[in-house]
Every structure is written in structure tokens, then in C-alpha cells.
């Protein structure tokens, strides 16, 4: 078990752009951290640097207080599950899982006991004598997991198939609880990341975008990239100007006029407003209604909710339709924005302008437990 | 009473789909089949006849029946026995050395270093050279008075005189083995190099993370992956060595002494084309063929080769 600390970690492949630039992050001992990013964001590079498969161009890596930046993977004592599993084709399941133990010259009887234990934990006790090519994808994944956890190393890193079923997510969480080890899971699938991670580390183009509790990454995106990368439906963005009116910040453009509650009002000027579709409610228009009015262009069902695209002036706004609300395509509708779910971004840098509320509990993990 | 008969005319356009496929198959296979029958089948039968017929008026012509005399001669022929043993003496060290050298070369050329592409291209030079050129080259290199190799050996202090590479018995045979290995190992090296490039990197990396040092990664990941290719390379080297002829012919002519660098193939050539004993030459050629087929069967019947085929 160990905490992981990265200091200004960078990796540039020969003749390429930086795959990872200046990543500084601390992962507390025993946490489950998901590294999330689109392809080419540097997330796999980060994992390879952690495992020692690739050498950092600059920066340092610490496990607890021990620097391991230049330690070879053989001596780094981490474990990793590869995306293609990396099983040894000429070895049986039992031999695959026992391989790290054999390399450590563990006595045969002890080895067999450990392998059996791990296989029982993963539900692959009946496959011990099979070869990898005789296994299904899910079974191979379990064998790779077994090989990773069999020697109880400091850091079982996980890089599992993106197409995990929910049950596999739950199993990984369970495994994490049993082992109490630090898990780092790399994925491009936000559902995986948000479902499993205590914390989520969002990368884009090799740079850290946000490192925060899973719930907060979705609720309070630190910049425009995170805001648009997360969420199943695209976030609505509007360009406008900010005016401060006492304690309240007003966002305005040709079609919109919204009050944004903000602890520390950002300076006046232009800004991009981001609102998730589930933070806007569509209601059928009633005469005398003060809310923003528009015309419903189409409806889409994103299980279990219905969303409407409403045309307001030059904007097309995706908003949630409450259950039972009589909304029809072509009819007028009104939009209600949830004031606490408005995000202001700098129009040029994309950085968040209205500060998020302070984290209620310090660690994401505790927050998750409180929610459960 | 009328009898209607369907006239069976040869009209491809009226064939069923299956019939048409068969028709096409026959048409396309015919030229190849003709070549095989003409160039392999006919000589095979003719050479078999040669072994049981005596000499005709001209060399290679079939004479009267002589029964199995040519075949029984094998049992009493001391030169045959010597050539047989020497064939094995060529094959075993050649196969061992070529596989090991090929493996080492492939592993080196699989590393990332500047000039790797040029090095890979250079590797193939010995294989690409005509045997006569190789022979002439080594004749000079290994000359016992002016050879460059002897020069280096004396300069490095390994010996105080130029070794006689082509003078000793059985030393000369192993000089030929050396030249033969030099000429053939690049082929195996390229085969192994190709296989190495299909080695899944994630598996190698997994082994590193599991704690395997370089030697152990080689033993548990790289070598098992290369095994089928090594067996294939071994078979190829074996077949090439069993048919080794040109280097013997050009460098030693079978000597020194009477037969010290003979192998079966060379002995078969001598009988057939120098002594014009076509019958006995054919018998020897059959013995070589039997060896080739026998070795190939033994090596391909290994469990690994078969399971590799099954795994696809």
C-alpha cells in the first residue's frame, strides 16, 4: 500500500508533441482514482509512467516518500491489468497467475494456495487448467486481474476493458475494498470513471484539467473542456456579457438574461455560460408566464428521461422535460434554469469563473460513503 | 414407342453451379498438373527404373533388369557409410549453430539503435550471394599462406602460424560447416526477426511488471513465442544442409584425402555424373530424399508445432 505523488511529470515521445505535460498530483493511500480523458489525452502514458514501462522525460514519481522515477518496472512492485490483458499464451490460467510468485521464488505449495485463494475471489476456480485462448474475454480479464492482485503489491493498477458491465464495476469496487490498495484505473468512459472512482483525474492533450471527487467533476467542471467532455448530452453554451448588480451577477445576451449566484463575483466582461440539459426544465407555455419562451424543435429519449431541443432566438437549447409535462414538437414552451447549476467560463481560456462551493467533506471517498 | 434421350453435349453454359465450379477448377489446375507430372512424376518413375535396370548404351539409358543389386550394394559400400555419417556431421552442427546465430542476430536487430535498417539489410548479404562467389571468397579468406583470417589469427596471437583450414581431417568438414552456416543463418535470422515483431508488447510489459528480468522474459515469454518459428527454421536449415553440394564441390571437391568432406548428396553426384553409374546414383538420391522426409516428419510432429497450427 502506498500513496502516489507525481511532480511535474512530463513525457514527450521521440519527435512528437508532449503526451503528458507537467502533471502534478497526489493520490492518497488506498484510494480508487480514475484517470479519464479522450484518446490521445495522455492517460495511458500516465499509467505507463507509473508502472515504469515508459521513462519520464522530466518530473518525478514518488510511492510514499520513496522516489521511483528511475526504478525499473521489475523492481517497482506495482501490478497492472492491460487492456488486451497481456496473458502468457503458453501458460495455463494457474501458471499465469502464479508467474509473479514463481519469479519471487515462493515455495510451490504456498504458490498453489495463493492462486487458489485469488481464483476463488474472482470466481475462476474452475478454469485453472485452461489456456488463455480457451477463455472468453471476461474470463481473460479476471485472470489478468488475478495475476495483478496475487502478490499483494503496493499498487494494483487497473486498466480494464472499456466495455465493463456494471457488475464488473461493482466487482472492482469490492476488490478495492478487500485489498485496500491504491487503484488507478484508466478509461475514456465517463460512466466507468464516475461509477468507480473516489476521485476522477481528467486529462486532455496531456494536461491536467481537473482532479476532484467524482461527484464534483460532474457538478462543478473546472473548465469548458471538462464541462463538455462529461455528461451524456452536450452541455448548452451561451456567449454573453456579465454585469454585477450588488451581490448578484447578471448574464445577458440577445435572448437570455439570467442571475448567477456567485460567492465571489467575477469581473464584468464577456463570458461563456454553460448549463447542462438536466439543469433546465421545459414547461408548456402558459399565458402570462415570465420565463424564457421558445419553440420545441424535437424530442429525444435518453433513458429514463425525455429531453427537448427548444429554439430560442438564435439558440438551440437542450432541456429536460419533467414527467407528464405535455410538450409537443412545434409548440411553444418555456425554459426554467436552475440557478445553482449555472457555470461561467472565460470565453478565451475556458477556465471556470464562478467558484464552486467548498467541498463539504475533504476526501471524495468519504463523500461517496456518505452518499451510499 | 418413343425413347427420349437427353443428349449430353459438352456445353459449359448449361452446367449447374457446382458443375461449372468443377469445370473451372479443372481448367485452371490443368497447366500446373501437367508441369508437376512432367517435371516431377516422370523423373521420379524414371529414376526408380534406373535403380533396377542396368546400364544402356548411353549414360542414363535404361538397360536390362538387374533387380535390387543397386540397393543391396548400399550395405557393403564403405564410402556410402562414411558419407552417411558425414552427412550427419554436417547437419547437426549446422542446424545448432544457424539457429543460435539466427536467434542472436534477430534479437540484436530487433533492438532500437541508429542504423538498424542498414544493419537489417546487410544481414541478408551472405544469403543473397551466389554459392560460387561465397566459395571463392572463403578460398581467399582462409588460404593457409596468404588468407586474411590466418593473418588476423596470428596478429591476435591466437596461433603463431596460419591454420590450414582446408588441410585437416576431419577439420576441413567443419570449415565447410562454418562457411555454410555463415551463408544460411541470415535466412533464419530474418524469420525470427519477423516473428519477434509479432511478439505482443503488452505481454512483455506484463512480464516486466510481474518482476521478470530480461533473461526470464526471454525464457518465459519470448522463447515460447518463437518456438514454432524456431522449429520451422530448424527444418529449413536441415533441408538445406542435407542438400549441401555447391560449397563442397567448389571448395574441397570432397577432399582432403579420398572422401573426408563427402556427404550423401555429393556422393550421389559423383556416382551419377562422374562414374556415370546412374542406377546407384539414383539409389543414393532416394536415400537423401528418405532422410529429408523422415526428419521433416519427426520435427513437424512435435506437440508445439501441432498445437500452434490448431491455435491458428
Please, could you describe this protein's structure?
The complex is a heterodimer of chains A (372) and B (312). By secondary structure, chain A is an alpha+beta fold. Chain A has 2 domains: 4-227, Rossmann fold (3-Layer(aba) Sandwich); 233-345, OB fold (Dihydrolipoamide Acetyltransferase, E2P) (Beta Barrel), CATH 2.40.50.140. Chain A is 25% helix and 34% strand. In chain A, the strands form 4 sheets. In chain A, strands 6-7-8-3-9-10 form a 6-stranded mixed sheet, sandwiched between helices. In chain A, strands 13-12-11-14-20 form a 5-stranded antiparallel sheet, with no helix packed on it. In chain A, strands 15-19-16-17-18 form a 5-stranded antiparallel sheet, with no helix packed on it. The two termini of chain A are 25 Å apart. Residues 160-165 of chain A have low confidence and may be disordered. Chain B is mostly helical and 312 residues long. Chain B has 2 domains: 12-65, no CATH class; 71-311, MetI-like fold, CATH 1.10.3720. Helix content of chain B is 71%, strand content 2%. In chain B, strands 1-2 form a two-stranded antiparallel ribbon. In chain B, strand 1 and strand 2 form a beta hairpin. In chain B, helix 3 runs parallel beside helix 8, helix 3 packs across helix 12 (264-274) and helix 10 (214-242) packs antiparallel against helix 13 (278-300). Chain B is flat. Mean pLDDT of chain B is 83; it is low at 303-312. Chain A binds chain B through residues 51-53, 72-80, 82-91, 99-100, 103-104, 133, 144, 147, and chain B through 200, 202-203, 205-213, 216, 220-221, 224-225, 227, 311.
Describe this structure in a few short sentences.
Chain A is α+β, with helices and mostly antiparallel strands and 372 residues long.
Layout of helices and strands:
The complex is a heterodimer of chains A (372) and B (312).
Chain A: E1 4-12, E2 18-27, E3 32-36, H1 43-51, E4 58-63, E5 66-67, H2 73-76, E6 78-81, H3 93-103, H4 108-122, H5 137-149, E7 155-158, H6 166-179, E8 183-187, H7 190-196, E9 199-204, E10 207-213, H8 214-219, H9 224-229, E11 236-245, E12 248-252, E13 257-260, E14 269-275, E15 280-284, E16 292-302, E17 305-312, E18 315-321, E19 332-337, E20 342-345, H10 364-371
Parallel strand pairs in A: 3-8, 3-9, 6-7, 7-8
Antiparallel strand pairs in A: 1-2, 1-4, 4-5, 9-10, 11-12, 11-14, 12-13, 14-20, 15-19, 16-17, 16-19, 17-18
Helix pairs in contact in A: 3-4, 3-5, 4-5
Chain B: H1 17-52, E1 53-55, E2 62-65, H2 69-76, H3 78-109, H4 116-123, H5 125-128, H6 131-141, H7 148-155, H8 171-197, H9 201-209, H10 214-242, H11 246-251, H12 264-274, H13 278-300, H14 303-311
Antiparallel strand pairs in B: 1-2
Helix pairs in contact in B: 1-13, 2-13, 3-8, 3-10, 3-12, 8-10, 9-10, 10-13, 12-13
Amino acid at each position: 500500500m502506498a500513496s502516489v505523488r507525481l511532480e511535474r511529470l512530463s513525457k514527450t515521445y521521440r519527435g512528437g508533441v508532449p503526451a503528458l505535460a507537467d502533471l502534478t498530483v497526489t493520490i492518497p493511500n488506498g484510494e480508487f482514482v480514475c484517470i479519464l480523458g479522450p484518446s490521445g489525452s495522455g492517460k495511458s502514458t500516465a499509467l505507463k509512467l507509473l508502472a515504469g514501462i515508459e521513462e519520464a522525460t522530466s518530473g518525478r514519481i514518488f510511492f510514499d516518500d520513496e522516489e521511483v522515477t528511475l526504478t525499473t518496472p521489475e523492481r517497482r512492485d506495482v501490478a497492472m491489468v492491460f487492456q488486451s490483458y497481456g496473458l502468457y499464451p503458453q501458460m495455463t490460467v494457474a501458471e499465469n497467475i502464479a508467474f509473479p510468485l514463481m519469479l519471487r521464488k515462493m515455495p510451490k505449495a504456498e504458490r498453489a494456495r495463493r492462486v487458489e485463494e485469488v481464483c476463488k475471489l474472482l470466481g475462476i476456480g474452475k478454469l485453472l487448467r485452461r489456456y488463455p485462448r480457451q477463455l472468453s474475454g471476461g474470463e481473460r480479464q479476471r485472470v489478468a486481474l488475478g495475476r495483478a492482485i496475487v502478490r499483494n503489491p503496493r499498487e494494483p493498477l487497473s486498466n480494464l476493458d472499456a466495455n465493463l458491465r456494471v457488475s464488473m464495476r461493482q466487482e472492482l469496487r469490492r476488490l478495492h475494498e478487500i485489498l485496500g490498495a491504491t487503484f488507478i484505473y484508466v478509461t475514456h468512459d465517463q460512466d466507468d470513471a464516475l461509477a468507480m472512482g473516489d476521485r476522477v483525474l481528467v486529462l486532455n492533450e496531456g494536461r491536467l484539467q481537473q482532479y476532484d471527487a467524482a461527484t464534483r467533476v460532474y457538478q462543478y467542471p473546472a473548465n469548458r473542456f471538462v464541462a463538455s467532455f462529461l455528461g451524456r448530452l452536450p452541455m448548452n453554451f451561451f456567449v454573453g456579457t456579465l454585469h454585477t448588480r450588488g451581490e448578484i451577477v447578471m448574464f445577458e445576451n440577445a435572448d437570455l438574461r439570467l442571475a448567477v449566484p456567485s460567492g465571489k463575483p467575477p469581473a464584468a466582461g464577456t463570458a461563456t455560460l454553460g448549463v447542462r440539459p438536466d439543469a433546465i426544465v421545459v414547461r408548456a407555455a402558459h399565458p402570462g408566464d415570465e420565463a424564457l419562451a421558445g419553440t420545441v424543435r424535437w424530442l429525444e429519449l435518453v433513458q429514463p428521461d425525455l429531453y427537448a431541443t427548444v429554439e430560442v432566438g438564435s439558440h438551440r437549447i437542450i432541456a429536460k422535460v419533467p414527467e407528464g409535462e405535455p410538450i409537443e414538437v412545434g409548440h411553444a414552451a418555456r425554459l426554467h434554469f436552475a440557478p445553482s447549476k449555472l457555470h461561467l467560463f472565460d470565453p478565451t481560456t475556458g477556465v471556470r469563473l464562478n467558484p464552486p462551493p467548498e467541498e463539504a467533506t475533504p476526501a471524495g471517498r468519504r463523500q461517496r460513503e456518505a452518499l451510499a | 414407342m418413343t425413347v427420349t434421350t437427353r443428349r449430353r453435349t459438352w456445353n459449359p453454359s448449361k452446367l449447374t453451379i457446382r458443375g461449372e465450379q468443377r469445370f473451372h477448377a479443372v481448367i485452371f489446375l490443368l497447366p500446373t498438373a501437367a508441369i508437376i507430372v512432367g517435371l516431377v512424376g516422370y523423373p521420379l518413375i524414371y529414376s526408380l527404373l534406373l535403380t533396377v535396370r542396368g546400364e544402356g548404351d548411353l549414360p542414363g539409358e535404361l538397360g536390362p533388369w538387374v533387380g535390387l543389386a543397386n540397393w543391396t550394394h548400399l550395405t557393403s559400400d564403405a564410402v556410402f557409410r562414411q558419407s552417411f555419417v558425414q552427412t550427419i556431421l554436417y547437419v547437426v552442427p549446422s542446424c545448432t549453430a544457424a539457429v543460435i546465430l539466427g536467434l542472436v542476430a534477430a534479437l540484436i536487430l530487433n533492438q532500437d539503435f541508429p542504423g538498424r535498417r542498414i544493419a537489417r539489410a546487410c544481414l541478408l548479404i551472405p544469403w543473397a550471394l551466389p554459392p560460387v562467389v561465397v566459395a571463392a571468397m572463403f578460398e581467399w579468406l582462409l588460404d593457409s599462406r596468404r588468407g586474411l583470417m590466418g593473418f588476423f589469427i596470428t596478429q591476435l596471437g591466437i596461433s603463431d602460424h596460419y591454420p590450414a583450414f582446408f588441410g585437416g581431417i576431419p577439420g576441413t568438414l567443419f570449415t565447410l560447416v562454418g562457411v555454410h552456416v555463415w551463408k544460411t543463418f541470415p535466412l533464419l535470422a530474418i524469420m525470427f526477426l519477423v516473428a519477434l515483431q509479432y511478439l505482443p508488447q503488452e505481454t512483455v510489459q506484463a512480464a516486466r511488471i510481474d518482476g521478470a528480468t530480461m533473461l526470464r522474459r526471454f525464457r518465459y515469454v519470448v522463447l515460447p513465442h518463437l518456438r514454432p518459428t524456431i522449429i520451422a527454421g530448424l527444418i529449413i536449415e536441415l533441408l538445406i544442409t542435407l542438400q549441401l553440394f555447391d560449397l563442397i564441390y567448389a571448395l574441397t571437391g570432397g577432399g582432403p584425402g579420398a572422401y573426408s568432406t563427402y556427404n550423401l548428396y555429393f556422393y550421389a553426384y559423383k556416382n551419377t555424373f562422374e562414374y556415370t553409374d546412374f542406377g546407384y546414383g539414383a539409389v543414393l538420391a532416394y536415400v537423401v530424399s528418405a532422410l529429408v522426409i523422415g526428419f521433416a516428419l519427426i520435427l513437424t510432429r512435435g506437440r508445439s508445432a501441432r498445437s500452434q497450427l490448431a491455435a491458428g
